[in-house]
C-alpha cells in the first residue's frame, strides 16, 4: 500500500502536515507492506506554484500509485476525483504544524474519511 502525506516540507516522516492537499509543496510517499514501512520518499508537487487545473493534483497522486491520502484538508472537487479512483482520504490530527513522526502508528491516528 502507498500512502501520500501532503506536507509543507520534504523531511520524510518528520515533515509538517500541510493544511491543504493541493496547495502543499511536497508529498511524502510511504510504501507500507504488512504494517511495515518499506520506503519513504519526498515528491515535489508539480502544481504547487500554479495549483493546476481541476483534477491535475489527484491525477498526479494517482500516477504515483497512491492508495491513501493524508492531509490537513481537501476540497470537494479533489475528494471527488480521488474517491472515483478508490483512493481513501484521511484528515490528519497532526496538521497545523504537526509532525508525522508517529503517524505510522496507523490507523488510530486518523480521523477517518473526510
How would you describe what is shown here?
The protein is built from 2 helices and 6 strands. The protein has 114 residues and is of the alpha/beta class. It has one domain: Dinitrogenase iron-molybdenum cofactor biosynthesis domain (Nucleotidyltransferase, domain 5, 2-Layer Sandwich), CATH 3.30.420.130. Helix 1 (56-63) runs parallel beside helix 2 (76-83). The longest helix is centred in the middle third of the chain and has 8 residues, at 56-63. The chain is globular, with a radius of gyration of 12 Å.
Keyphrases for this structure?
14% helix, 2 helices, 114 residues, alpha/beta, six-stranded mixed beta sheet
Using the 3D structure, state the CATH architecture.
2-Layer Sandwich
Number of domains: 1
Q: Spans with pLDDT under 50 lasting ≥5 residues?
A: 101-114
Give the distance, in angstroms, between the N- and C-terminal Cα atoms. Answer: 19 Å
Task: Give a short synopsis of this structure.
14% of the residues lie in helices and 32% in strands. It is α/β, with parallel strands linked by helices and 114 residues long.
Layout: helices, strands, pairs:
Layout: E1 2-7, E2 26-33, E3 36-44, H1 56-63, E4 68-71, H2 76-83, E5 88-92, E6 110-113
Parallel strand pairs: 1-4, 4-5
Antiparallel strand pairs: 1-2, 2-3, 5-6
